[in-house]
Amino acid sequence: MESVINSHSMLAISLPLSLGIAALGSGIGLGKAVAAAMEATARQPEASTKILVNMLLGCALIEALTIYAFVIVMLNMGKLG
Amino acid sequence: MEQTTPHVLNWVHLLADASRSSNLSGFLIRWETAIFSLIVVALISFVAVKLAGNLKLIPGRGQVIAEQIIGTLDDLICSIMGPRGRAYTPFVGSLFIYILVTNLYGLIPLQNSSTGYLITTAPLAICVFFYVQYVAIKENGLFGYLYHLAGNPKSVAEWFFVPLNLPLHVMGEFIKPVTLMFRLYGNIMAGHILVAVFLQLGIQVLKPLRIPVGVPLHLPFLFLEVLIGAIQAFVFALLSTVYIAMMLPHDHEEAHA
């Protein structure tokens, strides 16, 4: 009988897990960014559009980290077959 | 064609299923994204030509809306890049309008949005990449462009770190379009799959009753998709603007690198 723990199954476990861990970090970062932006908007509602633009920019850059993990997952997806 | 991921049915797939044995079927499957892309392009072109055809001093309803949209985009880009940002409004604005309309068009029943496929988002990102390099070389000159990529070294210590900075900056230039295209693709594709899964769930729930209706469980996610489609179009345009702004010579302020 073939061993259950081979490179194939390890890959199958680690690929989604890596994306999940990356998303966890991004989620914390996004939460902090949005919370700060909300606070700033509440303090100065007249600057809300400027704050929104800057927040979205930061959110996009934070999201990029998850996208890197997603790219790696997509690249290695073919090995699962 | 067998697809492993769940997908919402669209008319191209229906037509391909109906003409399964003929050549048309393969053609439709192969050019599905192109068909939806062209429909959106035709839609935007039609509206644009129709509005631009009869410009009036006292604008009608359509002209006011179009002017509002263009004005808002222009204000946004100029707020990031300063008054010289106006030169880049046509490019970034076209990107924004195309992506926004494509994203929202995919939510119409029996339609699909082509931004959910890498084959559409990759060319968009590559366009941005080449445009940014073109603008950088045009504005900085070839030497200034290379100097910028080397990290604007001034003192001896900064010249010492050029071998480290140069590969990092060059790599960064290539990573930018990759993140652009995967962000748009990932968000829209994930939205499609989400809607498809909940559609299937809604159908499965009422299956024991044997009636040809389902519970529209996917409706809240459609509203989410409207939001995400608008935000992603905005983010794509915003990041393109920022990438262009980063490559421009900034002599007036040295604070932001």
Mind sketching the topology for me?
The complex is a heterodimer of chains A (about 80) and B (about 260).
Chain A (H helix, E strand, L loop, with lengths): L6 H37 L4 H30 L4
Chain B lengths: L10 H8 L4 H8 L1 H22 L7 H21 L7 H17 L12 H32 L6 H5 L1 H44 L13 H29 L10
Description:
The complex is a heterodimer of chains A (81) and B (257). With 81 residues, chain A is an all-alpha fold. Chain A has a single domain, classed as F1F0 ATP synthase subunit C (F1FO ATP Synthase, Up-down Bundle), CATH 1.20.20.10. Helices cover 83% and strands 0% of the residues of chain A. Chain A has 2 helices and no strands. The radius of gyration of chain A is 19 Å and the shape is elongated. Chain B is mostly helical. Chain B has one domain. Chain B is 72% helix and 0% strand. Chain B contains 9 helices and no strands. Chain B has helices at residues 11-18, 23-30, 32-53, 61-81, 89-105, 118-149, 156-160, 162-205, 219-247. In chain B, helix 1 (11-18) packs antiparallel against helix 2 (23-30). Chain B starts with 10 loop residues before the first helix and ends in a 10-residue tail after the last helix. Chains A and B meet through helix 2 of A and helix 4, helix 8 and helix 9 of B.
Give a quick precis of the structure.
The complex is a heterodimer of chains A (81) and B (257). Chain A is an all-alpha fold.
